[in-house]
Structure formats: C-alpha cells, structure tokens
Amino acid sequence: MTTPLPLDHLERxxxxxxxxxxxxxxxxxxxxxxxxxxxxxARDMGVSVGLRGGGRSYGDAAMxxxxxxxxxARMNRVLAWDPVGGIIDVEPGVxxxxxxxxxxxxxxxxxxxxxxxxxxxxxxxxxxxxxxxNWREGTLGEHVLEFEAMLPxxxxxxxxxxxxxxxxxxxxxxxxxxxxxxxxxxxLKRVQSGNLDVLALSVPDISSMLDEMDALKDDxxxxxxxVDGFAGGRxxxxxxxxxxxxxxxxxxxxxxxxxxxxxxDLPDTFFGLVPKSILWRFMKPFxxxxxxxxxxxxxxxxxxxxxxxxxxxxxxxxxxxxxxxxHWKRAYWPEGLIQYQCFIPRDEASQAFGQVLKSCQARGLxxxxxVTKRHRPxxxxxxxxxxxxxxxxxxxxxxRNRQRLLALTQALDAIVLAHSGRFYFAxxxxxxxxxxxxxxxxxxxxxLLDLKARHDPDGLLQTDxxxxxxxxxxxxxxxxxxxQAGLTDSAH
Amino acid sequence: xxPDHQGALISRPKALIIGASSGIxxxxxxxxxxxxxxxxxxxxxxxxxxALCDELAQAHGTRALAYSHDVQDxxxxxxxxxxxxxxxxxxxxxIYAAGVMFPHDPSAYDTENDLLTLRVNTLGAIAWCNPVAxxxxxxxxxxxxxxxxxxxxxGRRAIPAYSASKAALETYLxxxxxxxSSSGVTVTTIKAGQVDTEMLKHAAAVRGPISAERAADLxxxxxxxRRQVAYIPWRWSVIGWVVRHIPSFIFRRLNL
Lengths: 492, 256
Fold this sequence. Notes:
The complex is a heterodimer of chains A (492) and B (256). Chain A has helices spanning 32-45, 96-103, 121-127, 134-137, 165-171, 206-216, 255-258, 279-283, 289-305, 315-319, 346-362, 402-418, 433-440, 442-455, 464-474, 484-490, and strands at 10-14, 21-27, 49-52, 68-71, 78-82, 87-90, 108-109, 144-150, 156-159, 180-187, 189-190, 195-203, 222-227, 239-246, 269-270, 274-275, 309-314, 337-345, 369-374, 388-396, 422-423. Chain A is an alpha+beta fold. Chain A is globular, with a radius of gyration of 22 Å. Chain A starts with 9 loop residues before the first strand and ends with a helix. Chain B is built from 8 helices and 9 strands. Chain B has a 7-stranded parallel sheet with strand order 3-2-1-4-5-6-9, with helices on both faces. Chain B is globular and about 60 Å long.
C-alpha cells in the first residue's frame, strides 16, 4: 500500500452494547456524490467499506474494523412530505425521531418503530426492524413504497416492491452489504391522537404470558411482554404485558393538543425529582445478579398490584421505552452487555422459551432484561420473523464471563434451531456461520451471495458481522461464489 | 487469514513487535505466543522472521505474521501500520525492540555508525510510536513498550551514541506517557540491564547478564502490570540509582 488512509479519520466504533469495539476510518458524507467518492477511494485502495447509521445495533452489524466506515448521520434531509397522503421521502440518515417529529403535527406516525427512536431509517431498513405491532403491521420494510440505492460501483437505481421484487426484498434486511440506501419513500400511518390507550396485565409464567398475548392480539394493536429473567420454578417467565391501541376518532377530546410535539417529550426527571440523565448511576450498583434480582422482583410485585390497570400514554413514551432512561447501557459499564433474541413458531414457543430461560439460570447467567413480542412471517430474504413469538434477553458482560456467555448462546442456538426458530442480526453478537446457515437455509444464502456478486463484484461492502457470519459461508464449496477472490483477498 | 468467528464477544489480544527477528524481540515473540496473543512481527530479515512465525504456529498454534521493514525507512511506517492493523484485525500492544550497538573502539570517531545508531534506536522508535500512540489514544486503550537501557542513564565513554539514543528514547517515551495516559494508554519504558544477546558481544564489559528468555519473562510481567518504568532485572534499579547520582567529576574518571 502506497498512500495510507488518513489517520485523522481513524475512530473507535463500538457495538452499541459496548462489549466490543473496532477502529475504523470514519467518513461522514452529506451528499450522494460524497458517498460515491468514498466508494471510489475504497476501490482504489482495496479497502472494505462498512455502513453505519445510528450505531444502535447491539453487536457488530455497524462496525467495519480497520476498514472504511461510512457514518450516514449527515445525510439526514427530509426530501419531500405529503401531509395529505402521509408519504415521506427521506435520506437514509434521518432518524426515527426526526421522522415522527416531522409528521406528527399533521397527524401521521410511522407504522413501525423500534424500541428506541435513535436509529436511522437507513439502518432500520438494513436490519428491517419491527415494532411491538409486528404481527399486525409487519416490518418497517413492508411500508416502504420505493427506495433509491447506490452500489459500490457508484451506480444508482430506484427499486420498489412492484418493480423488482427480488432486489427489494433482499436489500431491505440486507445488512448494508448489498448497497447503500440514498432515498427512502415511506407510507406513514394516520393517527387521531398523540396518545395511546394502554392496558397492563401481570402474568405468572411464560406459557400464560404467550397465551395471554395471543388472546389479546385481535383487539390490540401493540403488545409487549416483560419477562423476569431471574424467576425460576413455577414462576419461570413471569412478567407483565402491556397492550396498547391508537385512539379512535373522537376518543381524544383535543387531538390538536395531544399531537403537539412538546406533549411527546419524555419526562426529564424520575419521580419528578431525580434528573434522568444521571439515573443510570443509580442503576449501576444494582447491575449485578443479586441487585438486579431484587429490582426484577420489585418490578414484578408492582406489576401484580397494577394488574388490569388502564391508562393513557403518549406515543413516544409507550413506543420508545428504551429511551426512558438515557444512557442506561452505562449501568453495564465497563464491559457492556449483549442481547440474544430468538424467534420461535407459536406452538413451540412456550416450551422453547422455558428451556432457554432455564439454561441461562442453570449456567448462572440470568438475563437482566427479557422481552417478548408477537410476530408474523414476511417475504424478506434474510427475514428474522416467524408466525410466533420472540424472546429478547439482555446479558451483562463481565471480564470473566465472556467464554461462558458464548457457550451459553451456543447452547441456546441449539434449542432455537431444534424448534425451527430464527435470529435477528440487529441484536446479534454471537451467531456463527453454522447456525446462520442452518436457519436461513442454503437457498437463501445462495441468493444472497449471487446478489452480492452482482451488486458488489469487488466485495467492498463488508461489516464485522458479515465477516463473522457470511464470509465463511461464502467460501464453502456448496455455494458457487463468483466473487470469492474479492471477499478474501483484496479487501480485508 | 481466517476471520475471528467469535469476534463480537471474544477477541484475542493483538501485538506488534518491531525488531522481532532476534534477541529480546524474538524472545518476547515466543513469550507472547505462549500467552495466546496474535502477533505481527517486523524486522529487516524476512527469512528469520518467517522461520520464527512457523515455529510459533507449530509450538502454540499462534497466528503470527511476518513483515519485512527497515526502521530507517520512516516514510513507509504509516502505511505498514495500517495494513498490519488490518491483517491482525486490531492492535492492543506495541513493542519497539529494534536496536543496534556498535563495538567499542576507543580510537574511532565513527559518525556513520553513530548516526545509524540514532536512526535505528531513536528515530525509528519515534516514527512508529507516533502513529501508534495516535491510534491508541483514539481507541482509548492500548499499551506501548519501548526498550530503553541502563546505558541511557549516563553518557558512557565507550558508547556515546548508544547512550544518547537510549536517553533520547526514554525521554521521548516519558513525554509520550504524559501525553496519552489520560486517554487510557499505557506507555512502558523497559530499562534493560545486560541481556545475553548478539548485542552483548559488543559490550565493553559483561556484568552478570540474564538470558533473553528471562528478560522476556520479566518484560511480560511489566507489561501485564502496566508498569511505567521497569528495570530488567530489578537489581539494576539500585545500580541505576547509584550511577545516576555519581558526580560528574568522579564519573568521568571511572571506566564506565
């Protein structure tokens, strides 16, 4: 290599969970032509390029260690907004927060939002995120009318579900390795109020949790379950369900007021007293097995007391629960956390989740947070969804438990695969090529590799996740891969 | 190179050693390989390095990569560092172990050799440590290890350029430490006494040297403990203290 990449672009890029980091040469384009120039630079130098949005993936999905990392945050313009039809055109660096703040005053809300408002829409589509209404509304990708994308060759194209079904369903959920979104057109959802009707229920174990959620799913638009990962025995998987509905027309006495943005602001203090910006410091002393067991017990007892409680909550407060305590991940500092999320078909979910929770506890690695959601399958190539349930588990990483944690997740992978389950790369830090190949199937992987070879013949678009899971699959004999050389030799 | 399948949760520490083909550098490479550290080894002599890499791969199953480079070629350092970090997929530990010492000849004033000594021992170290320190400071972690010498404590009549090169290196490392320690980077100065290597053949007098393997053990301990300055072995810190405090009018009459 003759001229090195500029050292002043070298930055630390962390997994959101902080459990790993990599150094990368970070570039922040604000226009498509700047993005094109970065692709050219990468091609000329034979260095790989990774794409990063809000950096909210728990694992290594938005990292490209020792290569070029394109931070899309500055391509964040709203290009067009139709307040009558609820159709918006945005650049990929627009965040979920920017999106709803732009449209809510006109009575429109994103049809699908993740649990935090800080991811970019480009990142959301690369991961094809879902919300608490997945079984009803599908993933965010199902609400994209069309998008424009740039390939590493610099070529740009427009794609819609009708015009190019295959590309559309591969690039959305394509982990940012098939091209970079440059414009996204979304159909938003009409809302009659800035508030939701919420119902809270407590449930004594995992099977009643899932049964209850199934019973609620026809009458409610949003469903999410909290699982106490410490409870064992008969209380295994106990927790709380929150169900929510948009208000029907006329139910809100003053929609103009409730749709105002300042009514959506999350409160900045806890109990009206403790500034939330420092709340994580109060959580930190409890971020150990004993302390957090107490927190979970307290939370469950509160949930029991509040069983059947109905109340109204703002859209932001209900949907963006992860933003309720700013910087809460710092409670896991310095080693961080990982999340493990699995998706299991409906009939086997209760049994599988029971096994999963028991395995965690038996290995002395109880999850500090467990969340269940209801899902439906979709047409996307790297789909994570099934007609069933997901269970997302947060694990604290310590200096000593990394090997045990990895062994645990591998044991969990076996349980999930035995129940025909699936995984989700926005959360993943541990999946190996074997398990990924097993749940995605040879055909999907072959199609992915074929598309990759067509879109990116030099194999420039890569991430740490791609190299961990897919690059090893690409070198297997069963897949005829036209771009192996590009993948393994030239870049990284 | 095989990608790190467990990369997101588990990654092995990664070290780069400059001057790894012989002496303390090679002994350190063997020591680190035994600790399951991924290695990039740099020296002028590629065949020796490659033989060492093969040895380490067989003995410990370590990933060890060889790079040919002359530390006098400072212009190529940033590019080489970039590709080494890419090949290793990161960098946690940097050791500058390159050094030369020419035989003592009381009648000679050999400018060529003296300048070469400075270029290898000091200028090469600065050329490497600067970009490494910048990288580590950005990462908020990392450790830089430089090999000083007890000869750097005073100007030795037999080895003026060598003394000066090590004194300059040690002062540079101290300044670097002051500069990057607040960013979470450790800078360790090893003050080696006499170690039984090729270089020792050029020493004016041999006083109880330790083996290169023993030196590597002690240096590894200093690295693990994140020491700022470590005398190798410990007794040299006492001798060093005495030597530093001998008044000049006496010191110049001593045959040191």
